């Protein structure tokens, strides 16, 4: 976190319930919107609340700050005889109000749990000297480390107890991975961490080169397709890779409005130029040439047409196209074959009426039906080609054009580009 | 106090209780058809500040009885009195007809010879402070019968048609020639009415009886037996404790040795109908 943006964590406020005074703040690492008596007065019934609310995450906002607390009540008639049989406390995090509270939830609960255990085991919180000596500096250190690293801390609280907290980034569910998708790295990963990755990721990670698609990776590394897809989803979730379409000279691409970002930012331009240089070329191409080539993809032009037109020797068109697809400057225009044969849309009826067909016949007709079924508008030619691998051959094939597939008289169909 | 009087806790049991958090409301059934809505307010400073500011309207409206409890051992008498005054102001503002009781509590922590003096002193301060409102002061402790005396008085204020009850009791006493008749509420065993025809030297006998019977009831319940009735007889008197109406117990003390138990029991049985009718009439009104 840079110093001029809002900190990840403003402060930690530790409060206890005193049997004479009621809920009051014992220590806070920094003054916040919740420190002033009047303001604290408003929220005290939620900081040290009735038993119904214990161990629940409670979020309160004042102006531009949010308070997250997890109240703890320890009941012990013996130990707290002079304290009305209970000890109540709450270590609250104070964060910017636009931050997502769920990101901090685990950390808040964990800290509450640590303090609760320390109190039960060694009276850490009820012993004044221990509290003053250890709790205050520990809380300060937690705030400092979380702000420095942006997400985690590891602080010694007391003797051998270390408080390890991590803020969890909420990320969206990764999309399902199709066999025809190509994974491409979008962030650096440290390969020295390779041993810490799960075996599946270790197996496939070397095959990720921006050109191999999932099906090919599965065959090259001799791993089951479903597992490769799962590994890809995992890497997508952690923001290491993104999916781009398979490269082919007959692909069509079109420029997107995101091109303005590239046009405006010099650093992005430099990155592009360095990436797309052809192996063995003497110099990098100029940005002008690269940009011209990208913009040549208007109205969904074929890659081979653009390459022939531009004749840029220093530019590797494969790298350029994949890089732009990753960054979003180019969008793939996909081809969808839609069968006009009505039978595939009514396949439920035909199946039931074919109950008495022979063994061999159903197999062949199933095959026929399946290919035709794929052409119902939801599968683009890439996906159909991938299915083709499964049905037609066991050896390592190359990409087949749809027209070469042994499809029995495919009836009328139309082609949709989008 | 709430758990002893209304929830059958013994004094020892109260040791397990935690602090009252803010205002705890409870509903207690009393005398069958009366529902007492009790608001137990936690005494921590933080809460007290709130009662007289943000929650004032909520807490002090529609109050019939205000019971203010002072801890006799408190080191900050001035602060306590200050809060008491704020209470009175709020009461004056919102429920000026409310009856006020001040309980000087935890008297068991004061040595016996000092108790009367300390209480008298406190009573004077409070009566002065309460003007123009009137307050009744009691000294209490959960470890003896003083708790029952205070709460009997409090609850006596709330019993409907208490005069009618007393009149009927007096009639009854005359007819059966009893020395004294007490009427208790069934669940709490607080004395709600009495008639005394023969003076007795112990002015604290009512609460003592409440205390004793309540303890006995508790012990019975520990053996999963329900208390039904009691007869105590010696050469000088006979005492009968019987269920009178579904919500009350009666205690009849007779010192005439010629009257046999069966006679008194029969009288009580016959009187039941009268008292039950009385209760029903009150309920209908």
TrEMBL record, chain A:
A single GO CC term for this protein reads: GATOR1 complex
Q: Name one GO molecular function term.
A: GTPase activator activity
The record, for InterPro entries, names: NPR2-like
List this protein's GO terms for biological process: cellular response to amino acid starvation; negative regulation of TORC1 signaling; positive regulation of autophagy
Superkingdom of this protein's organism? Eukaryota
A Pfam family annotated for this chain is NPR2
Q: Which family does it belong to?
A: Belongs to the NPR2 family.
Q: What is this protein called?
A: Nitrogen permease regulator 2-like protein
TrEMBL record, chain B:
> Its principal location?
cytoplasm
Q: Which family does it belong to?
A: Belongs to the GTR/RAG GTP-binding protein family.
Write down what this protein is called: Ras-related GTP-binding protein A
Q: Which Pfam families match?
A: Gtr1_RagA
Q: Name one GO cellular component term.
A: lysosome
Q: Does the keyword Protein biosynthesis apply?
A: no
Q: What is the lineage of its organism?
A: Eukaryota, Metazoa, Spiralia, Gnathifera, Rotifera
Keyword list (alphabetical) reads: Cytoplasm, GTP-binding, Nucleotide-binding
The UniProt transmembrane annotation reads none
| One function term, GO molecular function aspect | GTPase activity
- GO biological-process terms attached to the record: cellular response to starvation; negative regulation of autophagy; positive regulation of TORC1 signaling
State its location(s): Cytoplasm
Q: Which organism is it from?
A: Adineta ricciae
Q: Which reaction does it catalyse?
A: GTP + H2O = GDP + phosphate + H(+)
């Amino acid at each position: 976190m840079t110093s001029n943006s809002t900190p990840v964590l403003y402060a930690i406020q530790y409060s206890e319930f005193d049997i004479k005074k009621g809920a009051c703040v014992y220590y806070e690492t920094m003054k916040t919107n919740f420190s002033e008596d009047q303001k604290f007065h408003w929220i005290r019934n939620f900081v040290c609340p009735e038993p119904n609310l214990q161990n629940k995450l409670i979020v309160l906002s004042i102006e531009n700050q949010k308070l997250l607390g997890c109240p703890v009540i320890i009941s012990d008639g013996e130990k707290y005889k002079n304290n009305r049989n209970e000890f109540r406390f709450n270590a609250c995090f104070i964060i910017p109000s636009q931050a997502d509270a769920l990101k901090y939830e685990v950390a808040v609960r964990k800290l509450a749990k640590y303090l609760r255990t320390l109190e039960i085991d060694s009276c850490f919180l009820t012993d004044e000297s221990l509290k003053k000596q250890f709790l205050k500096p520990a809380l300060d250190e937690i705030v400092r480390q979380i702000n420095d690293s942006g997400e985690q801390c590891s602080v010694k609280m007391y003797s051998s107890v270390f408080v390890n907290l991590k803020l969890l980034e909420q990320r969206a569910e990764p999309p399902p991975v199709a066999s025809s998708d190509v994974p491409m790295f979008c962030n650096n990963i440290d390969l020295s961490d390779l041993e810490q990755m799960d075996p599946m990721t270790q197996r496939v990670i070397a095959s990720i080169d921006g050109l191999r698609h999932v099906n090919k990776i599965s065959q090259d590394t001799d791993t089951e397709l479903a597992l490769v897809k799962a590994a890809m989803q995992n890497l997508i979730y952690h923001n290491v890779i993104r999916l781009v379409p398979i490269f082919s000279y007959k692909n069509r691409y079109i420029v997107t409005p995101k091109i303005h970002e590239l046009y405006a930012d010099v650093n992005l331009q430099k990155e592009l130029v360095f990436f797309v240089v052809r192996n063995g070329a003497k110099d990098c191409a100029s940005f002008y040439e690269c940009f011209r080539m990208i913009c040549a993809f208007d109205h969904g032009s074929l890659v081979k047409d653009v390459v022939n037109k531009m004749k840029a020797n220093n530019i590797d068109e494969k790298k350029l196209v994949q890089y732009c697809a990753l960054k979003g400057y180019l969008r793939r225009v996909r081809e969808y074959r839609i069968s006009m044969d009505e039978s595939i849309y009514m396949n439920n009826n035909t199946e039931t009426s074919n109950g008495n067909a022979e063994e061999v016949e159903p197999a062949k007709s199933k095959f026929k039906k399946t290919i035709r079924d794929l052409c119902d508008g939801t599968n683009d030619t890439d996906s159909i080609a991938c299915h083709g691998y499964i049905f037609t051959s066991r050896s390592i094939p190359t990409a087949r054009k749809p027209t070469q597939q042994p499809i029995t008289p495919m009836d009328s169909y139309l082609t949709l580009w989008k | 106090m709430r758990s002893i009087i209304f929830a059958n806790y013994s004094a020892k049991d109260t040791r397990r209780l935690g602090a009252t958090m803010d205002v705890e409301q409870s509903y207690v059934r009393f005398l069958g058809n009366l529902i007492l809505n009790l608001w137990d307010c936690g005494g921590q400073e933080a809460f007290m500040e709130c009662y007289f500011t943000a929650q004032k309207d909520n807490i002090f409206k529609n109050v019939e009885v205000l019971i203010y409890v002072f801890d006799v051992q408190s080191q900050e008498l001035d602060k306590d009195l200050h809060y008491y005054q704020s209470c009175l102001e709020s009461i004056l503002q919102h429920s000026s007809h409310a009856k006020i009781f001040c309980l000087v509590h935890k008297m068991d922590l004061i040595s016996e010879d000092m108790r009367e003096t300390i209480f008298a002193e406190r009573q004077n301060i409070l009566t002065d402070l309460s003007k123009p409102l009137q307050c009744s002061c009691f000294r209490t402790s959960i470890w003896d019968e003083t708790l029952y005396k205070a709460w009997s008085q409090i609850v006596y204020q709330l019993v409907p048609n208490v005069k009618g009850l007393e009149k009927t009791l007096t009639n009854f006493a005359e007819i059966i020639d009893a020395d004294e008749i007490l009427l208790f509420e069934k669940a709490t065993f607080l004395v709600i009415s009495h008639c005394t025809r023969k003076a007795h030297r112990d002015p604290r006998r009512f609460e003592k009886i409440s205390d004793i019977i309540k303890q006995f009831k508790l012990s019975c319940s520990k053996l999963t037996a329900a208390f039904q009735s009691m007869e105590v007889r010696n050469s000088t008197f006979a005492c009968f404790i019987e269920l009178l109406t579904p919500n009350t117990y009666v205690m009849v003390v007779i010192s005439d040795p010629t009257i046999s138990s069966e006679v008194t029991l029969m009288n009580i049985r016959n009187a039941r109908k009268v008292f039950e009718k009385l209760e029903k009439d009150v309920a209908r009104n």
